Structures
1.
Amino acid sequence: MKKFITAILVPCLFGFGCTKRPPVGPTEGFPGSRARFALAADHLYLINGQNLDVFALSPSGNPVLKKTTPIDFISLDTIYALDNRILLGNSAKIFMLDITTPDNPELTGEADFLRSCKKLGVVGNAGYVTTRVATDCYGFNGLQVYDFSAGVNPLSGQVFEITGKYYRNIAQYDRHVYIAGQGLDIYDVSNPLSPELKHTIQTHQFSDLHIYNDHLLGIVNGGILVYDLQNPEDPQLVSTFYN
Amino acid sequence: MKRCKYLLLLGILYLISCKNEGPPPTQTSGYKPVYAPKIPDSEITFSSGKIKGEPGKAVTGGNRLFQLEPNKGIHVIDLSNPGSLRTLGFINIPGAHDLEIRDHQLITNAYNDLLVLDVTNLQQLKLIVRVDNAIRLPSLSIPPHSGYFECVDKTKGTVIGWTKTTIYSPKCKY
């Protein structure tokens, strides 16, 4: 019996001799560099963690918080607004909200994102969403197209998918969509639900795109490339700007 | 044989007992959190500047392009002549993460604060309104590498980074 007690006691003393591990700070995720703001109908929509905040903007620019809408338990990391719709994304899903009543956005649809992380959500006649693999999740790089014309939950209708493309941003001009990434891909979207690749410019890595007065502005590291869109399928470089 | 079993049991119990790490050091090399600072209005200024760092989101307003340089500010470029763009200058806004333009109002942020600026005349840039703590930035709650670190004090705000330095009697580790 004495030996038994010793056998129990000795290891216990080893155990008590251990220092308790200090507590670890809480984990809340890591900052991204994606869009947090979107403007629509004199309202600013702002993603704040897992919520969507709506600010009404007075003519003088004074923002007044109107509503905070919880969206998901995973923090949101991108937002895009067009007309009366808002697209939100996090690392697992995309969400669509109706902002016909701007103060009161209503969730109308959501779609699983195959666990790929979206870089940006864009809406054309159909819903165009670039997808991107991040280090903390898997999936694919590319483009998904959703049919927004159908029903209550338009995001359920994914109709088109391109994989293997490192896409970042989208701009639309006439019947064409320009998608930037490692190069610039030009799609004919006469049928918005079935984009057709027409041309690729592979000279630069673009981080953002803008349409300005029949020109395409391609934002590259340290500068801007300006393309003339007289022939939208074959943009011509007219100037480069590096200051 | 009985003695042998006893020693074996002792050995096993010793092995499964935790490793003694000792108390936290009174002084060691570790990480200290960097909290989002409050940027005074006087630091939000317009000056000449060149696009140097990582290009961020851009928006067009009138014949100008406003391009974010994350955490530093916003470049303003004249688009009047697409064949020859011209830089107009740089709006210094530490902690800027996003931007939108509405007429002549530039909406952006300085860390946790939402800002609306009147950009009608860039030389006389005007802060229309600041909404304190309207933006909840994602917090970097743990340092980039394992080891001892100074615990995060949430009352000091959002952690935007970590700096390696000498820390004293750290209470946190991972």
Note: DSSP finds one helix and 13 strands in chain B.
2.
Amino acid sequence: MTKPSGPTLPRLSRRRFLAAGASLGVGVIAAPYVASADEPTLRITGWGGKWGDIMKAEVGPAFEKEFKCKLQTDTALPFLPKLQASSRSAPIYDVLHTNSNEQWAAVEMGLVEPKIDAKLVPHLADVYPYALSDKIVGVSIFTSAIGLGMRTDKGYSGVSSWKELWDAKYNGVRGGYVIPVNSLGQAFLMMCGTLFGKGQTDLDAAYAALEKLKPIKLVDFTGAMEKMFLSGEVGLGVIHDSGIYRYDGQNQPIDFVTPSEGVLSLEQVLTITPGSKLKELANAYVNYMLSAPVQKKLAETVWYSPANKMVKLDDKYDAKLLTTPEKVSKLVQVDWKWYNAHKDDIDSRVNRIFRA
Amino acid sequence: MSLAPAIRMNGLAFFILPSALLFALFFFLPIGLMAVMSLLTGNPVVAPNVAFTTRHYARIADDPYYFEVIWTTIRIGLWTTLAALAIGYPLAHWMARIKSRAGHALLLMAVLAPMLTGIVVRTFAWMALLSDKGVINQTLQSLGLVSQPLKLMYNETGIVIGLVHIYVPFMVLTLTGVIGRIDERLEQAAENLGASPLRTFLEVTLPLSLPGILAGSLLVFALAISAYVTPILLGGFQIMTLPILIYQQISANFNIGFAAALGMVLLLVSFVLVVAYNHVLGRVSGQRDLQ
């Protein structure tokens, strides 16, 4: 019996098999990157929740389509230590979106550029003065008003001043933020200096006031404070307006109080990193976020007050958010540069004040 | 002389190599870097003009607040360990001595079941129970047993309750193996010689299970002093422990050097504990090489 003749396949050695397998693996992994190699990727930071949802579903894709790029958003806090650990010449982000206190820390460390170039971001001409004031690094694209949140089903009506938070009847249901880690807590500390002392930087007056604020329930972010209000753990506490207004129409017994002494400004700030290789695109992103349609869309989704004064919100939002020069004038901005210079001492003191 | 036998790899070495690499890359290297960072004024990779300094350690030494934080961390660890031992030992003894295979399986499932849920979820569940408006306080108030909510949360009690729930399985599983290996005939002999069950337990079972108690305690203590999520949530940010302080320094103060120094202190506490544990274990078990 003879062996049938015909074309013979090359012998598949172990080496060939491994090489083919490795090539296939690399190809599969690299395929999406090769496919999008011609599209630049702008790396930004951003929030999760409703902000993240609308950015992912509408605002982000529209920017990608218009500028033929990819947006890569990091929503995992904390952002600054990651930027701090990355190379200055090849930073992990092109655009840093965070609150003003962290932006000031970032600019002190040389991690972000102090100002946005108005020639490259035309919409800077449309923003309220607070968004570009000397208390701001980069540009504030939105702001919230930090004031008091209140349960409306506990007979607490008539609250109109920050000082009512010190009323003994709120013992056990008083809420605030962890000062060392949260912008609202830090801003509130400065407000304590204004309320009971000579001004924002009167730390002794602020510390004395904080001592008298105990017992108080502390949280580290607004999502947790919202839950404290909704569950009734907190009846009166510090919160920003968006944290209350986002439950509008859901029949929740909570309301936002604008204290007569003014509301503190919680700015959403954008800056560009000095080492970014996509400066033009980064500036385009800042300009895009300040454009009227994007401002309106985001403001009406997450209840942030738009920085662009040309934006016209629907009546429901216009009635509550800071959309006129008169309303905006109630905002109290914090001197974060001063605060950050004293942060270690402040943290050390407030950690002692609030220890159980 | 041929070098071949000298360079010939033992087959076992191939199995040890991955874990050795893992330890080198993800344990010794990060700890070495942390030790270096704790002695620098900044990050030399990204910042110019970085110099050696002892200021981070001086800051810890100069401020009694940090000693309070260290003591709070150790105190929570000790209470958690004691409570986990008190709850875990009887359960482990039962598991080790139960004759029914099905009974053992059921007990094992009961011990392991909580571990199938994440720590965050379990901690939130405790918050739902222990908070001022939680199930326990609402029930007590509705029954008229208390007029004001009991302080079950926002203090060390709440943290210890949460940690014990999480770490009891570690204690039980460690103890079960050790108690299971104790020869029951020794206990029977003691009872035949007239010892009461309590005396048999105290003079036979307990001393022989000491290595398990020490190992379980070491494990639970180490986990408790390095816990972050449970202390921060059940302590309501009003109980400061070393892990919370370290995270605060990195995430909000961006002071990596000081955070590294605090990390080294936490490591030192753990190291002292391991050395003491080995010393005690060596003495009670007669294994001198452990000392």
Note: Chain A has two domains: 41-143+266-323, 145-264+339-353.
3.
Amino acid sequence: METAQKTERQHPVGGSEAEAIIEVRGLTKRYGGDTVVKGIDFDVKRGEIFGLLGPNGAGKTTTMEMIEGLRRPDDGYARVAGYDTRSQLAKVKEVIGVQLQATSLFDLLTVREITRMYASFYNTPTVPIEPLLESMILGDKLNGRVKHLSGGQKQRLAIALAIVHSPQVVFLDEPTTGLDPQARRTLWDIVLRLRDEGKTIVLSTHYMDEARILADRICLMDQGKIVALDTPANLISSLASESAIEFRLPAGDHAAGADHPSAERLAERLETIDGVRRIEFRKESWVLYTDALQRSLTGLIAFAEQEGLALTDLQTRTATLEDVFIQMTGRSLREE
Amino acid sequence: MKPYIQLTLAQLRLFGRNRQVLFWTLFFPVVFIFMLGTFMGNGSGGAVEGYWIDEDGSERSAQVLAALEEQKAVLKLEQAKDREAALEELRHGTKQVLIIIPAGFGDTVEAAVTGQHSGVSDSPAGSLTVYYDQTQASKSMSALNAAAQAADEVSKAVVEYSPVVAVEPVGVQSLNLTFLDFIVPGIVAMMIMSNNLNGVAGQIASWRERGILRRMQSTPLRPSTFIAAQITARLLMNGSQALIVLLLGIFVFGAQMNGSWLLLLGFVLLGTLAFMAIGFIIAGLARTPESAGPIAGFVSFPLLFLGGIFFPVSDMPAFMQPIVKAIPITHLSTGLRQVMNVGAGIGEVWVEALVLGGWLAAAFIAASLVFKWE
């Protein structure tokens, strides 16, 4: 079973035959007059890493907390391993493990003490504490106090506490926010290992690289709604343009912005370049999406020569989830 | 049972490892007892110190001085070397009284004696000048009384008067209580109130804010287990802190302990539980940890002054008495004080115990209604 999953890492969830361990239907949450989650539906399949990707305020945390039973949905329902999160919450709590976005732990307890305490909360058998903490690379911190841990170590401890009762589903809410690159990579390895051990992981993030590297499927959320749900590869290929060409123009007529009349004319003419599918102007940069990078690039340079335009900061790259998000919502992931 | 033990242990560890809080919660009441017990209640028992000046030097003035000497239990007088210097000391408060027998005192008295015999005058002729410090009201009153009594004695001797009615004083208070005896139970009551009320309110609100309670809520842990562990740990911790201060007060500072230790311990536990429950209510009502502190302060500050901690509740104005009698701190401080000072048994302090128990029950019901994980 484990080896099968490992070999299938790129496409671990082979279509519809995989069993849904989480079922979400019409899930809705309102705060006052604001509807922050607007009737969403999705399934999470057993053994996958399910990524909730979206900007801050998209409703990721609220969605997760409704599935965890920490918030009551105003409408719709969520089921985990067949248990309803409202009527069978006690059952749900036994099969899930939770790392909350803003959890702080007791600073004055040691790593071992706090793990033993969390283990005591469960009626089901728990895993041996020392091997668990060693697997989270905290073996030499067993008797160290929580307050002396680094940010990455604290997050790994939070994950250890979430899996101390060997739950079927693990919820990780923005586990790498605020960590340095090294600590993020260590955490990614741990998350992938958990999946390989057979756990289902629901992970929220606003980092597209994290979602692309970790998630088997990504649920792209914006303003309380799902804008897309697919594997990272399928999402990117849905752009129908594999590459993007970015450049700037020096301050002048053409650089003034997309709403400038001459810029509008410029955009119309750029669109005629061979292979270009779509044009965006954002953050003072022009972005041409193309499915024929080399031809479009040659075309662009010829166009610039002919018009006497001096291109700066010219770069090409493959299209990313960020581009998908922009296409779907018209906004950048990083915009607050 | 396992989560209850683990949570209790965790809370005790948090207490034990927070050295700073541990130090101040013990240090503060001890310093209070030391300051109030030593500086306000020192053993001079209300004696007034002062000077006398005899400007007359007659036989009559010597008679007055002898009569003043008889009052030395309350009036400790020395001869002043210089009038101005003596007045200066009076202004600085190091001495409280200056009695001057003016020149010509003896002659006036002699003249008056003659006058009285002939029945001409009925107003006293000789007079003593007494300088006193109005800012020290009670000491001044004893000084003036003592001086008046001395003057009275001389008058009686002069006119060869023998009294027909006398007062025979019999002390009913067999215990000689000092201010220290009063303040130790008060400080312990204050400590129990603030440690539990402010401690619970602040900590629970801060745990809620930091998401610690939410994280626990996502596990099968029951709120009742959580609260039971909190109560156990705090009962052990705050109860023993109160006991340490009591022991220090009794055995180091010398406060009297005339009653049953068991009953005293009972009041400590009852007070701890009652104020803990009130703390849980505040933690439930406060929206942020920042507001929990001020709310707890808002509740405990008036109690500090109304509840008989620093002054007897009988000193409160009449219109305040219903409030004073209703609040829990009054009954805790009174209970502790009655047991320690007077050696009261349960038969005499059952009302205090009952009211505290009532507060405890009501507060726990209210706390369980308003408690929330998030």
Note: The first helix of chain B runs from residue 2 to 17.
